[in-house]
Write a structure and sequence with these properties.
Helices cover 45% and strands 13% of the residues. The protein is of the alpha/beta class. Strands 4-10-9-8-7-5-6 form a 7-stranded mixed beta sheet, sandwiched between helices. Strands 11-12-15-14 form a 4-stranded antiparallel beta sheet. The chain has a two-stranded parallel sheet with strand order 1-13. A hairpin with an 8-residue loop joins β11 (305-306) and β12 (315-319). α2 (39-45) packs antiparallel against α10 and α6 packs parallel to α7. The structure holds pyridoxal-5'-phosphate (PLP).
Length: 419
């Protein structure tokens, strides 16, 4: 497994990389925002494209020698347009957060009003959180989920928008397990004269394959990461059908907030988008969704409080404090002890501090890439429950870890030796 990474190159760094390969191989990865890229994506990102400066855009660069990076960036753009059926794209954002910053700056001036989902409710920091640029540079008000159902309450959001009169509404989330109705958001935005931005960082793969409704023809601008369900390298993208807006976006990415684009990452994005256009990828996303549904049902059957009662997408959240009297912090530690990686997560109206939390967020994209189906996810749900019930018994945890490791070994990472 580890032979594709050569320790002799730099023994200190490659020792850590080697150990990371082993950790990934022997752990069950349930962090909803992670995935395992293909060997082709890994090789493109690790290529000589990293050596090239290419400020500007294909055909309009500020440096010589851009013929090959131009080809790669054009491929990334054309494939991305085909994937989401969209007219204008920017593939240069270094991350999802940078994509959001550039997109927001294309629509607003400092001090303008912005409305996004609260972080506790499942929104992202870049949607107006007080410590983020989005809450510092703009006047921000967050909307929340409903207190009873923990689902988006579009009537309540409309009333808030009518009072606050934001210039931009952001929809999209990092920890929300239900389908988002972009058309309802559009009605709300239109009724108060606001722009509408969708951040599909998590659900992009579902949108691209038809497992979630698409915001492309609905919202003014759509942003995403490329490393979550899209299964590409770490990075961001911005999409729109509005030509005037697309020009502003390009200027706000470069020179607005970024310098030279990461052409090696853009090469890897192009490779990932090609993979995302295949029927196999669509089947993969279908399995991701089935696995999440099945696993969440198993948790319900074992007496866990699944937030909103289930899931429509690739993730769900458990209120472990309410159901099993363990904090998110402790549950995360216990799971790590048995080689199951998940993250603690605030649940709506959480009574615990953000560093502690009452919840655990679980996602199926990564292990579905490894080949897990419903059967394996059900098995892991039982290991999680066993670990929580035996949280203070080191020997019991050791025994569970052995079982988790042997299951993971049967589903190897998608890498082979590089020639
Ligand atoms: C992950 C995520 C981002 C940020 O992506 P980074 O690449 O970590 O900056 C933005 N928005 C949402 C909704 C996300 O889930």
């Amino acid at each position: 497994m580890t032979e594709i990474f050569d320790r002799n190159l730099d023994d200190e760094v490659f020792d850590a990389i080697d150990a990371e390969v082993l950790r990934q191989q022997e752990s069950t990865e349930l962090i909803a925002s992670e995935n395992f890229v293909s060997l082709a994506v890994l090789k493109a990102q690790g290529s000589v494209m990293t050596n090239k400066y290419a400020e500007g855009y294909p055909g309009k660069r500020y440096y010589g020698g851009c013929v090959n990076v131009d080809r790669v960036e054009e491929l990334a753009r054309e494939r991305l347009k085909a994937l989401f059926h969209v007219r204008f794209v920017n593939v240069q954002p270094y991350s999802g957060s940078a994509a959001n910053m550039a997109a927001i700056r294309s629509l607003l001036s400092p001090g303008d009003r912005i409305m996004g989902m609260s972080v506790n409710g499942g929104g992202h920091l870049t949607h107006g959180y007080s410590l983020s640029f989005s809450g510092k540079d703009y006047e921000s008000l967050s909307y929340d989920v409903d207190r009873e159902t923990y689902r988006l309450d579009y009537d309540a959001i409309l009333r808030q928008a009518q009072q606050f009169k934001p210039k931009l509404i952001i929809c999209g989330a990092s920890a929300y397990s239900r389908e988002i109705d972009f058309k309802k958001f559009k009605e709300i935005a239109d009724s108060v004269g606001a722009y509408l931005m969708a951040d599909i960082a998590h659900i992009a793969g579902l949108v691209a394959t038809g497992y979630h409704n698409s915001p492309i023809d609905v919202c003014d601008v759509v942003t995403s990461t490329t490393h979550k369900t899209l299964r590409g390298p770490r990075g961001g993208i911005i999409m729109t059908n509005d030509e005037e807006l697309s020009k502003k976006i390009d200027k706000n990415v470069f020179p607005g907030i970024q310098g030279g684009p990461l052409e090696h990452v853009i090469a890897a994005k192009a490779v990932a988008f090609k993979e995302d256009l295949t029927p196999e990828y669509k089947d993969y996303i279908g399995q991701v969704v089935k696995n999440a549904k099945r696993m969440s049902e198993e948790f319900s059957a074992m007496g866990y409080d699944v937030i909103t009662g289930g899931t429509d997408n690739h993730l769900f959240m458990l209120d472990v404090l309410k159901s099993k009297n363990i904090t998110g912090m402790k549950a995360q530690k216990v799971l790590e002890a048995v080689n199951i990686t998940a993250n603690r997560n605030s649940i709506p109206f959480d009574t615990q501090k953000p560093y502690i939390t009452s919840g655990i967020r679980i996602g199926t994209p990564a292990m579905t890439t490894r080949g897990f189906q419903e059967k394996e996810f059900v098995q892991i749900a039982h290991y999680i429950d066993e670990a929580i019930r035996n949280q203070d018994d080191a020997r019991a945890l050791d025994a569970i870890r052995e079982k988790v490791v042997s299951l993971n070994r049967a589903f190897p990472l998608p890498y082979r030796k590089v020639g």
